[in-house]
Fold this sequence. Notes:
With 119 residues, the protein is mainly α. Helices cover 56% and strands 7% of the residues.
Amino acid sequence: xxxxxxxxxxxxxxxxxxxxxxxxxxxxxxxxxxxxxxxxxxxxxxxxxxxxxxxxxxxxxxxxxxxxxxxxxxxxxxxxxxxxxxxxxxxxxxxxxxxxxxxxxxxxxxxxxxxxxxx
Length: 119
């Protein structure tokens, strides 16, 4: 009898290595798939096992964070070149990450941190 758990995306593990932790939703199928991967890794002697972090709705967290970016870039719809749009959006995202203290600040406030990244 074939398992209902989908096949392991082996190419992802081969390419990127085994992740330390995996964020999944509260679905039982996802947890079963991750447990299957861990059993395979343990039986082959790889030893490194991924930890499952179950979140009620991971997309909600991402969307809440992305809402700020959408609000900031809304008035900026008139870019003439893709590279200038990409650079501007990357700067807005970086500033937002600094504001949320997602970088190691080393005691610096936001402006010096942004200037250090730009240099």
